[in-house]
Amino acid sequence: MYVLYNFIIFSIWRSHNMNAKILDVSTGKIRKAVIIDAKATELPSIHDGWEFNFPSRLKELSHAIAYKLILKEEPEVLLGCLIFQMVNGTGPYIAYLECSPENKGKNKRFDWVAGCLIAFSFKQSLIRGKGDYQGYLELDVQEKRDIDAFKVMSNYSKKYGFKRYGLTSTMCLVDEDGHKLIEKYLEH
Prior knowledge:
Blueprint: H1 2-14, E1 18-24, E2 30-38, H2 54-60, E3 64-71, E4 78-87, E5 91-99, E6 110-111, H3 113-128, E7 136-140, H4 146-160, E8 163-164, E9 170-174, H5 175-185
Parallel strand pairs: 5-7
Antiparallel strand pairs: 1-2, 1-6, 2-3, 3-4, 4-5, 7-9, 8-9
Helix pairs in contact: 3-5
């Protein structure tokens, strides 16, 4: 009975797909996208030009699920990836998040990719977070150089409302700031 219960809970946990909105940079129009759960075999790696090796990272983490953001009309177009983790089974955490190589920098094809994945993660924190962790989301900025980490933290603070813990690389998103992201990037 315990195994069946865990299977049902894990199946429910995995099936939180969400419609999202991304911005086509060339046209300025909003396009429909969807965030769906992804198996390790469907995830990109450094061999595909990505910074993170998502398949191996997913296998290393407990209580973690991978998601991918794809275009609704063109599901073969991978926009970004996310590994969402429940630390100790209670704390919502973005373990890894990355936009596809063509959606980075000044010449990106689509904007709002990271925003969609962060908003989705915050929504998951509302659903899965327990106790004080409901509506609370953490991440650690993982850049090789301090100057790059500072730039990312500054951007995440200004653009998404994350707050930095003291002088650490850990940031959190709570309450109203998270709800603003849900309104902007996700479809209800």
